[in-house]
Amino acid sequence: MAQSFDVIVIGGGPGGYTAAIRAAQLGFSVACIDEWKGRQGGPAPGGTCTNVGCIPSKALLQSSENFDHAAHHFATHGIGVEGLTLDVAKMLSRKDAVVKQNNDGILYLFRKNKVAFFHGRGSFAKAADGGYEIAVGGAKSETISGKHVIVATGSNARALPGAAFDESLILSNDGALRIGGVPKTLGIIGSGVIGLEMGSVWRRLGADVTILEALPDFLGAVDKQIAGEALKAFTKQGLRINLGVRIEGVDTGEAGVVIRYTDAKGAAQTLACEKLIVSIGRVPNTDGLGADAVGLKLDERGFIAVDGECKTNLPNVWAVGDVVRGPMLAHKAEEEAVAVAERIAGQHGHVNFNTIPWVIYTSPEIAWVGQTEQQLKAEGRAYRAGTFPFMANGRARALGDTTGMVKMLADEKTDEILGVHIVGPMASELISEAVVAMEFRASSEDLARICHAHPSLSEATREAALAVDKRALNF
């Protein structure tokens, strides 16, 4: 007889494993199914984020930043480096070790919370006995049953038509994290998060990097002023970013890759490179889920259709994360996961999409929460803006990293903070203060009147709040 559970979670990424743990904390019997395999073939829960996304990319970004500092910035601190060498294999090995630590940490959390883990591919078999039978395909195929099912199967990299990923010459995020040596020339199609982060890694290590972007504006979802500052910084570093291009075709050969494209002026161009990273978005991972077996509704793009509470068209079937509408962010998936587990328990789980932070882990980092200035203008909302540059911040000067600024937008009448946008050092950490403030519907004056430690980068946030009222103290 098949094992029976209160809740079955399909997928062990940030949304899946978080849903499983929270449901177990709430007293349910829980199973989590995940098929990801580690380097040795064993279970590797954590999804794209842990295995070929957020975690390994940050490990490589840190390694490449250390190398860049040693090569170009230590001298300003009076530190001389002779005979600087680069061991890419060791760098990748460290990255893999970081990934495995996270994989093992999730397996430990499953044991701690008594979550039954099944290593294999989960799919709907049929609806039965007030619940669902879920097939687990893998080394040991079996079927389990559950009353509630949470689908958290994530997403896959979108391939460029006519240029399938071979992870040797044409790379997805997976292949981009496994390049065995620094290519002399690297092409990237797409200037989004993945393209910029991977471009930054290999540029720092010595690659000649060219990015081709179809959109006419750089980082169109980012506040325009912040995006402009970032573009200036990246260009100064040596990243070549071409906007408004149309890809005509990609050819591979022994010498590498040739991209044929039309530039923003309509002229035919070619780009030859050793390797090509394609980062043009991601698609929901619903193939093989068995949606047809139970009548689970997908939309025209393959996403699982859900309502505002992550309920699907089927009773007691839920879906979270990249496989549903909304931003494809690990922390968004985690928030939805907790909310769904609590809703199953009869509680009132809640996710505020307006206060989900975004981060691009380049150097300088880019982070934001809330609305951009262009969005506020488009909706006709009256606002005030305050900015403060890191070049006027004492801690940034001591760090030797004064690129960028903090920008705050507040309602003209109520002074409620509507958006905070940062480009500069440690933006990924600084944005949390803005998220908390906006969650509590704080005003810019609230932040302006809170004492911030001196010297600290966070003072730039306070100064931006002061600047909303045109009373910045240090600029």
From TrEMBL:
<keyword id="KW-0285">Flavoprotein</keyword>
<dbReference type="GO" id="GO:0050660">
    <property type="term" value="F:flavin adenine dinucleotide binding"/>
</dbReference>
<dbReference type="InterPro" id="IPR006258">
    <property type="entry name" value="Lipoamide_DH"/>
</dbReference>
<feature type="active site" description="Proton acceptor">
    <location>
        <position position="454"/>
    </location>
</feature>
<dbReference type="InterPro" id="IPR023753">
    <property type="entry name" value="FAD/NAD-binding_dom"/>
</dbReference>
<feature type="domain" description="Pyridine nucleotide-disulphide oxidoreductase dimerisation">
    <location>
        <begin position="356"/>
        <end position="465"/>
    </location>
</feature>
<keyword id="KW-0274">FAD</keyword>
<keyword id="KW-0676">Redox-active center</keyword>
<dbReference type="Pfam" id="PF02852">
    <property type="entry name" value="Pyr_redox_dim"/>
</dbReference>
<dbReference type="InterPro" id="IPR016156">
    <property type="entry name" value="FAD/NAD-linked_Rdtase_dimer_sf"/>
</dbReference>
<feature type="binding site">
    <location>
        <begin position="190"/>
        <end position="197"/>
    </location>
    <ligand>
        <name>NAD(+)</name>
    </ligand>
</feature>
<dbReference type="GO" id="GO:0004148">
    <property type="term" value="F:dihydrolipoyl dehydrogenase (NADH) activity"/>
</dbReference>
<dbReference type="GO" id="GO:0005737">
    <property type="term" value="C:cytoplasm"/>
</dbReference>
<feature type="binding site">
    <location>
        <begin position="328"/>
        <end position="331"/>
    </location>
    <ligand>
        <name>FAD</name>
    </ligand>
</feature>
<feature type="domain" description="FAD/NAD(P)-binding">
    <location>
        <begin position="5"/>
        <end position="337"/>
    </location>
</feature>
<feature type="binding site">
    <location>
        <begin position="153"/>
        <end position="155"/>
    </location>
    <ligand>
        <name>FAD</name>
    </ligand>
</feature>
<dbReference type="InterPro" id="IPR036188">
    <property type="entry name" value="FAD/NAD-bd_sf"/>
</dbReference>
<feature type="binding site">
    <location>
        <position position="213"/>
    </location>
    <ligand>
        <name>NAD(+)</name>
    </ligand>
</feature>
<feature type="binding site">
    <location>
        <position position="322"/>
    </location>
    <ligand>
        <name>FAD</name>
    </ligand>
</feature>
<protein>
    <recommendedName>
        <fullName>Dihydrolipoyl dehydrogenase</fullName>
        <ecNumber>1.8.1.4</ecNumber>
    </recommendedName>
</protein>
<dbReference type="Pfam" id="PF07992">
    <property type="entry name" value="Pyr_redox_2"/>
</dbReference>
<feature type="disulfide bond" description="Redox-active">
    <location>
        <begin position="49"/>
        <end position="54"/>
    </location>
</feature>
<comment type="similarity">
    <text>Belongs to the class-I pyridine nucleotide-disulfide oxidoreductase family.</text>
</comment>
<feature type="binding site">
    <location>
        <position position="58"/>
    </location>
    <ligand>
        <name>FAD</name>
    </ligand>
</feature>
<keyword id="KW-0520">NAD</keyword>
<feature type="binding site">
    <location>
        <position position="122"/>
    </location>
    <ligand>
        <name>FAD</name>
    </ligand>
</feature>
<keyword id="KW-0963">Cytoplasm</keyword>
<feature type="binding site">
    <location>
        <position position="281"/>
    </location>
    <ligand>
        <name>NAD(+)</name>
    </ligand>
</feature>
<dbReference type="InterPro" id="IPR001100">
    <property type="entry name" value="Pyr_nuc-diS_OxRdtase"/>
</dbReference>
<keyword id="KW-0560">Oxidoreductase</keyword>
<dbReference type="InterPro" id="IPR050151">
    <property type="entry name" value="Class-I_Pyr_Nuc-Dis_Oxidored"/>
</dbReference>
<keyword id="KW-0547">Nucleotide-binding</keyword>
<dbReference type="GO" id="GO:0006103">
    <property type="term" value="P:2-oxoglutarate metabolic process"/>
</dbReference>
<dbReference type="InterPro" id="IPR004099">
    <property type="entry name" value="Pyr_nucl-diS_OxRdtase_dimer"/>
</dbReference>
